[in-house]
Amino acid sequence: MPEWFADVVTWLVSLDGATIYGIGFGVLLACGLGLPVPEDITLVLMGYMTFLSMPDGQPRPHTHVAVATLVGLTGVMIGDGFMFFLGRTLGNKLAHIWPFRPMLANGRREKAEGFLSKNGPKVLFSARFMPGLRSVVFFTSGTLGIRFSRFLLFDGLAALISVPLLVVSAWYWGAQIQAVIEYARQAEHGLLAVIVAVALIWAAKSWWSSRKK
User: Fold this and answer.
1) Among 6, 36, 41, 203, which is most buried by a count of CB atoms within 10 Å?
2) Quick check: 116 and 137 in contact, CB under 8 A?
3) Are 124 and 141 within 8 A, CB to CB?
4) What is the pTM (predicted TM-score) of this model?
5) Residues near 54 by Cβ (< 8 Å), separated by ≥ 6?
6) pLDDT along the chain (213 residues), means of 10
7) Long-range contacts of 41-44 (CB under 8 A, 24+ apart)
């Protein structure tokens, strides 16, 4: 496994399960606010902790793959929802101050607004698999007045796919954790490539239909 990953694991194994999940929950909340920490690696770590035993070989207290999955889902959804409500209540004000200003700079907010105006549900679902745009999309969806129920539905559906997949993979294939880490990175890139391909096909079909008309 990568050296930095091994260092984090060495530190976490000295803690009990409740503390591990508390840290994971806090990091996932911060990720929802744009913290530049890979959310997928945090989920993999939480799953991996359920695979490892205590130094004396005993099961780690309060750790279970189902608990890790539930904590992970709760953390990412609250983080996403917090960013959504920030956009809903203070969007225009926050867009001009740090740390939101650099996150929304370089035309990112305008791009997110354009996508959301035309393809709200598809973009909300896809944003979970786009680390660089995820927080921007959720923030912008709040500023555009998208219904919270719609946001919760499509973001929740995406989270129900990505979070259990990462946590359970790290638990089930813990002995091959290096492969799980590489899979998590490749899967995220692969899903992004699929999303981009589908978007391009849809755009081409829309252009062709309008040209025919």
Assistant:
1) 41
2) yes
3) yes
4) 0.71
5) 13, 60, 61
6) 77 83 90 76 88 63 82 92 86 66 65 68 78 77 82 90 89 79 60 51 59 59
7) 41/5, 41/181, 41/184, 43/72, 43/162, 43/163, 43/166, 43/167, 43/170, 44/166, 44/167, 44/169, 44/170, 44/177, 44/180, 44/181, 44/184
